[in-house]
Amino acid sequence: MSLRRELIYIDEKDKTDRIAEYSYQGDKIRIVFHNTNKEFFYSRTRARIVRTAVSSDKAFNVFNYLKEIAETVGLKTEEGNNILARSYESIAAIQEDCVLEAFLNHSLSAAKGSKTNPDFFPFGFNLSQRKAVNIAFSNNLSVIEGPPGTGKTQTILNIIANAILNEQSVAVVSSNNSATKNVYEKLEKNGVEFIAALLGNSQNKKEFIDSQKAIPDLSEFHLDDEEKANLKERATTLVSVLSENLSKKNELALLKLQLENIETEYEHFKETHKDKAEKTVAFRRDITADKILQFWITLESFGNRHRKIGFIKRFIFRLKYGIKDKSFYTNSLGEMIYICQSKYYPTKISELIRRIESLETSLQNFSFDDKMKEYSETSMQLLKAELCKRYNNQNR
């Protein structure tokens, strides 16, 4: 099937496949049909030319390039049929106003401009999931990836919930039924599966039509305006403190990894210099590991440029790092760097340990799991209240 670059309608009927050529002739459209050389002239009220996503040469060429890739790398069935290539072959036309059009014409960065409900996650969240949901609602296309168990289905469920609140519809598609059923089962677990239809292949459609259940009584989900306002305020407060503590949890995990790495590095450093005479210098009492590292790098830059540390630089170093001992500069450059390293590692380890202990104390006092459960239940109440408002006492 050839891809149509433009669609031609006559009397509001798609006649594209029957037309061999066309051109504009003043206020008329000249049309020549297949299997005839006869010309027909239509007014522009009767005939119209509609652009598609591939009307431009650039978009058309990009599409064909992707199609060629599909023919080369697409998965094949046991019978040897290329699944992806077959999908490309089945495309006859692409509407101008769609995500694929934006992709083909390199305009994906444009925001959709639709109303969103940020910070609404009735199925729970972590920071990356929160970011993924909000990006999904502010861009034409977003990609969420991750290994099994990282919460992709949970993110999809939160996208569905926000779409419902925005009075939007959602199509959840997959190359296999199990992935879509997983989403459906999570909705079912929370008592809101009636908003979804399991479709896909003919058997799925038949089963859905034959086994539809009536919309349940949603009156118990009703909330008046004051109740909604109170719950929204509580949810907003909870999502703020949860995000703050999720940031702390992420920071804690990174700090523990950093501490493990720096301790290993320090052990190697001490082993490498175990036969070296210990040398020290008095730094400022409040000096940080980052400041020591800065001095260490500065000394290395002097060595790389073969420059001496003059009086002015020594005065600056005294102010910045607290080095008053003039004998420090009688050491070789390598020895000065060694002194910095000897001070840097224990200082950095001490800083990391203090920050880790502070974060652990803060998280222990927060009751994270209880707060996340309260937030999810509060958000689910708001979602169900919206479903009650929209669907209660209606026929399926």
Please tell me the total number of domains: 4
Which parts are unreliable, with pLDDT below 50 for 5 consecutive residues or more?
A: none
% residues in beta strands:
5-15%
Strand order of the largest sheet: 2-1-6
- Terminal-residue CA separation: 38 Å
Rounded radius of gyration (Å): 33 Å
Judged by helices, strands and strand pairing, the structural class is mainly alpha
Instruction: Choose one word for the global shape.
Output: extended
Helix segment count?
Answer: 12
The count of strands amounts to 6
| Major pleated sheet | 3 strands, antiparallel
- Output the helix-strand order: EEEEEEHHHHHHHHHHHH
Proportion of residues in helical segments? 40-55%
Output the keywords.
three-stranded antiparallel β-sheet, extended, 4 domains, mainly alpha, 12 helices, single chain, 396 residues
Explain what this protein looks like in three dimensions.
- By secondary structure, the chain is mainly α.
- It folds into 4 domains: 46 residues, no CATH class; 48 residues, no CATH class; 91 residues, no CATH class; 179 residues, no CATH class.
- 52% of the residues lie in helices and 8% in strands.
- The strands form 2 sheets. The chain has a 3-stranded antiparallel sheet with strand order 2-1-6, with no helix packed on it.
- Helix 1 packs antiparallel against helix 2 and helix 9 packs antiparallel against helix 11.
- The model has no long low-confidence stretch (mean pLDDT 88).
